[in-house]
Design goal:
- With about 800 residues, the chain is mainly α.
- It has helices at about 1-15, 25, 30-50, 60-75, 80-85, 90-105, 110-135, 170-190, 195-215, 215-240, 250-255, 255-275, 280-300, 315-320, 335-370, 375-390, 400-415, 430-465, 465-475, 480-490, 495-505, 510-520, 525-535, 545-555, 560-565, 585-595, 600-610, 615-620, 625-640, 645-655, 660-670, 675-690, 695-700, 710-715, 725-730, 755-770, 770-785, 790-800.
- The longest helix has about 35 residues, at about 430-465.
- The chain is globular and about 85 Å long.
């Protein structure tokens, strides 16, 4: 008995934190392991259940209907190969539903809930370790950090947004809010003081975790859940029990404060959400979310019967989204209800409504018939937690196993009476269902042998640019388009890219590389067309820039259009490279840009100081009021007037008006580094914990280092390297990622020479130390990031 209990706890931890977590998509070994574990464990359980059949629950008919809707939607989807692979997780979750229902139905509620709270406590401890490390800088997690306490700030100027161990802060909030309410429900139901202490302790930890995520959806879900929990207590007192008289009016009057508390909680949560939403970053996120919701509505209207297919929202959204504000990481509608409707159509909506009705009616029946106050209060906790999760699902989509398991436990607790299956003989259809699910899990297990073999070959191709391995992957799994894209990338011919783009027309890198190859072949019209196709997918890629560059070099487009598309480079970087002074049209584009009121004032100043210092002086406001204006004053005092003291004062004023901007702390450190090194180090430490966009903390740190070895190590990380985007593959191909790079001719100009100076200094140090190969690699890294850097090209030619 003890061994089986330990095995069950280990399995719960595995499914929650390892196999069913983000590691499945990030680590190939975990992916293969999970395929084997799920096939064996769930397959064996189903085979053992074939004689007795699946557990009988009120939701069985709806589960059958849901599986039918999934299958139909996958068959008629945009990409059946991917859709059916995406169904593996939901189908495995269906089997987990029956396993959990069997435990409750056979009276094993204590084992299930003890394991539930054990895993919950483990997740809370890991999350609080990240929160503690964020605040104190203590190395409790692998990520390095300084900690706000270490820099003398008792009240941090930012919110933590913790994500460990589930991988995303909103997922942590989606877990913490409902589990906190469950813990409160169990605390209120416990008759032993020691149990109440434990449950209240778990609820307290989860409250800290929720605060640490700073998720508006989490706060709203928690507030709604708490209000429901309080309201149910009021309802329990108002409604007569099955055999007790109704409450008297004086007793009802004493419950009015309870109702008032529920109202206060909801009002406080709504006020907090409105306050959080005032930030610029949250507003940008809201724009993305509204775009996703609008995209889901368009998908429902376009395909109301079968939807776009299970797990294919991210693929379909690429075809209809606006190219202006895009986050390629997003693969769901960030609304579970819209996401379900978009992927499975109106039949999926009807089934979900059926689930909601049956769960609510069954919960009401169990709650009214509860034979003990303990059981009734626990049902209240589970029901309120389920509502909290449902409220948060308006703002997020939780498809990963940890959150799905949480919802399954709550649903089953609200619909299956403990011990109710001990005397029930499952009907024949339950045995058929067990056999069918066993067959499905087995088929998936066999399919994943092939899928994983192909994936392994693909990984080998990515590591070594191995064309033969890519072809073997495509031969093993011919219907997954990713392998054809890899073949096109390694072949690097116009026909190969054209064929690949007929399979995946939203592949931005493919369009851009095709444009580069056509330009090399002299097909300027074709190059412009391919670059435009990439531009229309996302403004932040290099499509607009390369369209303008090709049109400029070949006089192949109107001047006004070339200037406009040159200026669209600002979606990706600030134009400061010497590249922008090499043609008349580029100079005109920059002249317009630095005078455009629509462009951020501080960025206009950066561009002006590089290309038109006289105009930059005109941007210095003698009576600054905003953070940007004060930063410009500080930059002017430091770089033009040469007064670091006045510059530091101006940067301080900017910080006081926008404490969340890491660039301002780095700027103040530049002013302090020669006069107050300790203050500069403190500002740089703060900047490490804040987002920086234009300033480079490690480049400023170079002035604080004396050791040549440390200096070279710091030079190596002073300039951020080029990032290879992998979101397209990750979203469309179930987490598989490639390293498909842009042709050098299609990359952005990158940072200017002065920003790259730490790398030039590093190369010079290597040359002086007699390490020409190391210096050559540095020059290559510079050209990789800034392909128009003439000094780097000269260095490579000299050393080669």
């Amino acid at each position: 008995m003890r061994l089986s209990r330990l095995a069950f706890v280990f399995a719960a931890v595995y499914f929650t934190l390892i196999g069913g977590s983000v590691y499945y998509f990030q680590i190939f070994g975990v992916r293969v392991l999970h395929h084997a574990v799920v096939t064996v464990l769930l397959g064996v359980w189903l085979l053992r259940r074939m004689r007795r059949g699946l557990p009988t629950t009120p939701l069985n008919p709806l589960i059958g209907a849901l599986i039918g809707v999934w299958a139909l939607s996958a068959f008629f989807s945009l990409d059946p190969r991917s859709a059916f692979e995406n169904l593996w997780f939901p189908l495995s979750h269906v089997v987990l539903f029956f396993i959990i229902a069997d435990l409750i139905g056979r009276g094993r509620e204590s084992l299930l809930m003890e394991t539930f709270f054990l895993v919950t406590a483990l997740i809370a401890v890991l999350a609080l370790a990240q929160l503690m490390a964020w605040y104190t800088g203590i190395d409790l997690i692998p990520e390095p950090g300084v900690g706000w306490l270490n820099v003398g700030l008792l009240i941090p100027p930012e919110t933590p947004m913790i994500y460990i161990p589930l991988g995303v802060s909103t997922w942590m909030a989606g877990f913490a809010a409902p589990t906190m309410i469950v813990a409160l429900g169990w605390a209120f139901s416990s008759t032993k003081r020691s149990y109440r202490v434990v449950f209240f302790g778990i609820a307290g930890m989860l409250l800290l975790v929720l605060i640490g995520t700073f998720s508006r959806g989490g706060f709203l879900g928690a507030g709604a859940g708490l209000a429901v929990l309080i309201g149910l207590r009021l309802l329990r007192a108002v409604l007569p029990a099955q055999s007790t008289p109704a409450i008297k009016r004086p007793q009802f009057a004493r419950l009015l404060p309870v109702l008032g508390l529920a109202v206060v909680i909801l009002a406080a949560v709504i006020g907090l959400i409105v306050w959080i939403g005032r930030s610029e970053a949250r507003a940008s996120g809201d724009d993305l979310r509204f775009g996703l919701w609008g995209g889901a509505a368009s998908m429902i209207a376009a395909d109301p019967l079968t939807g776009v297919g299970p797990g294919l929202f991210g693929r379909a959204y690429r075809e209809i989204r606006s190219p202006v504000n895009v986050d390629d990481r997003l693969s769901t509608a960030h609304n579970a209800y819209l996401n379900n409707a978009a992927e499975t159509g109106l039949p999926g909506v009807l089934v979900m409504i059926g689930f909601g009705v049956v769960i609510a009616l069954r919960w009401w029946s169990l709650w009214r018939r509860a034979d003990t106050p303990t059981r009734q209060r626990r049902l209240e906790g589970a029901g309120a937690a389920l509502i909290a999760l449902g409220i948060q699902s308006v703002f997020d989509t939780f498809t990963y196993t940890p959150l799905v398991l949480l919802s399954l436990v709550l649903i089953i607790y609200c619909t299956v009476e403990p011990g109710s299956l001990l005397t029930v003989t499952p009907p024949r259809w339950n045995r058929v269902g067990a056999g069918a699910l066993a067959a499905v899990i087995s088929v998936y297990g066999l399919a994943f042998i092939q899928f994983d073999r192909a994936h392994a070959q693909f990984n080998a191709s990515v590591r070594g640019n191995d064309l033969d391995a890519a072809r073997q992957a495509a031969e093993i799994d011919p219907h997954l388009h990713l392998y054809q894209l890899q073949i096109a990338y390694l072949t690097s011919t116009i026909p190969a890219y054209e064929q690949a783009l007929t399979l995946e027309p939203t592949w931005e890198t493919g369009w851009l590389n095709l444009a580069g190859l056509r330009e090399q072949a002299g097909d300027i019209s074709g190059a412009l067309d391919a670059a435009w196709q990439a531009r229309e997918l996302r403004y932040a890629n290099t499509g607009a820039f390369n369209w303008a560059r090709i049109g400029d070099a070949n006089n192949a487009a109107p001047d006004a259009d070339i200037l406009l598309n040159y200026q669209m480079v600002t979606y990706a970087e600030v134009p400061l490279s010497d590249f922008w002074m090499q043609t008349e049209r580029r100079r005109a584009a920059i002249a317009e840009l630095m005078r455009a009121d629509s462009y951020a004032l501080d960025l206009r100043y950066r561009v002006a100081t590089t290309f038109d210092p006289d105009y930059a002086v005109s941007l210095v406001n003698p009576t600054p009021t905003s953070a940007m204006q004060w930063w410009i004053v500080g930059q002017h005092e430091l770089t033009v007037q040469g007064d670091p003291s006045r510059a530091a004062h101006a940067f301080t004023q900017a910080i006081e008006r926008d404490r969340g901007n890491g660039d301002y702390y780095v700027s103040r450190a530049r002013a302090e580094v020669s006069v107050e090194p300790a203050a500069a180090q403190r500002d740089l430490d703060i900047a490490d914990m804040r987002p920086t966009c234009q300033e480079l903390p490690n480049a400023v740190r170079l002035a604080l280092v004396e050791s040549p070895e440390v200096l070279n190590r710091l030079r190596a990380v002073a300039v951020p390297g080029r990032i290879i985007e992998q979101n397209f593959e990750g979203v469309l191909f179930q987490g598989r990622v490639a390293s498909i790079e842009l042709l050098p001719s299609m990359r952005l100009p990158g940072p200017p020479t002065e920003v790259l100076q730490p790398w030039y200094d590093l190369a010079a140090a290597y040359e002086a130390n007699g390490q020409p190969d190391a210096a050559l690699n540095v020059y290559r890294a510079i050209l990789d990031l800034a392909p128009y850097e003439q000094l780097a090209s000269e260095g490579i030619n000299r050393l080669s």
